[in-house]
Amino acid sequence: MKIAIEGCAHGELERIYETIEGIEKERNIKIDLLLCCGDFQSTRNVEDLQTMAVPRKYLDMCSFYKFYSGERLAPILTIFIGGNHEASNYLQELPYGGWVAPNIFYLGYAGVVNVNGIRIGGISGIYKGHDFLRGHHEFPPYSEQSCRSVYHVRQLEVFRLQQLSGNLDIFMSHDWPRGIQEYGNKAQLLRFKPHFEEDIANGQLGSRPLEELLKMLQPSYWFAAHLHCKFAALVPHHRGKRVRVDKRDESSSSSSSESEDETEKEQQCSSSVKAVPVTKFLALDKCLPKRRFLQLLDLPVNVEGPPILEYDAEWLSILRTTNHLLCVKDSNYYLPGKKAGSLQERSNFTPSEEELEYIRQKFEDLQVPQNFCQTAHTFDAQEQSNYKHQHVSQPAAVLNPQSNDFCTKLGIDDPLCLAILASGNQLPKTANVQETTSVGRKVQEHLLVDQETTVTTPSKRKMNLSLPAPTARVEIALPAEEEEMQLVEQVKQEPPSELPAEISLNLDANSPLIKKLKRRNQSIYQTVDNED
Fold first, then answer.
1. What's the pTM?
2. Which of 102, 219, 294, 408 could potentially form a cystine with 443 if both were Cys, beta carbons 3.0 to 4.6 Å apart?
């Protein structure tokens, strides 16, 4: 499967698809999947623009609304995560992911999916320490503060991702993991971005939670954006990955020696599981001429044919069993751990076989349903040509039928619903499925859907507040691998200019693959936004 990875999109969706189309024609290949690493800017109308954390003079509709309305159809399956320049009100409708437009899928606050056997994970937003321990308390219309805090990474998503076992082929983030510069050409990075030197010296370049996830998940590939430059690195892993076990710790009073012996036995039983030795990291630039914003990756797949998007059973189980940890308060709270709270409280939510079997029965078909529906009106370029000079209020919160169906089926709560209720407000009605016959017809023709997809909209949001019984779990770590310091030194001395099995694209402004572009976004995010 040929996969295109894009850095910061900044709303230039038409330009990205045109670039991919030009590459396909020039090289006589077919790109099957597009991954975008944040700042997607899925703005549907002028009201959505008001929820973006950028100065008013830089608000631009760009081209996403054409794909939302059905005027254009995404030519390839597109999966993206959120960054720090987003239509946050729309993305909050889909906290656990969903279709923002036909053939364009958002992973949610965090998520894991499978495409023809390739396991893809990701986390949205950027890290800010003062919001990391808070709950998802924001909902539109936003204040000046919540307009920014809404896209800050929270501990719950990191905790949930830490429960994963098995191999991840690809992981996406907007931020960089902290310390990643030590595994690539740091000198070259500082020549291109000299102002990074102070942040590196203070240990502030990149995200600390992502550094922890990198060490724990050990994906084969990690792609990022945000800092608007291309940077490659090879990260060796000296410790084995945690694997899923079915046995639970029934005794809370066992001695430390007995626990160590049991862990050693489990490690011996799990010695056949091979850890990922190296993660290939690549950060990409934003979509502008003379910027390295696109990368091609060719991966073998287990399933032939067109790309099919499926839920990940393990991730669904984690969402279900950690639903009681969801917090919507504007205050710090803490998640269960080995040394916190009662020893009987469950802290390891890596699914057991029984929990996975429950998901398989609940979701007989893990394929993500084609249930996109419009929940807002679409921008009209002719009627609203002077929209930049209009003063428009932020939209009110809207409940998306996709989230309603997903949460009801899985038996979990919608964070947006809980945040609205916790504030003392009434829940808005779930948005009706608007008449999008022409859009649905185009989607069916493109995806070769044989049967018409129907979406049912419940009249009232069902809230599931039942809590699973707390239990303890055994956390197993694989034996440590031999240190690979030689590899690290080799990377430092001869840092990779590009990743193996990939095609590096440095698209020049005069390239036939790129037309002249109104550089409306060139200076938007370099100086005015202190979040970058």
1. 0.79
2. 102
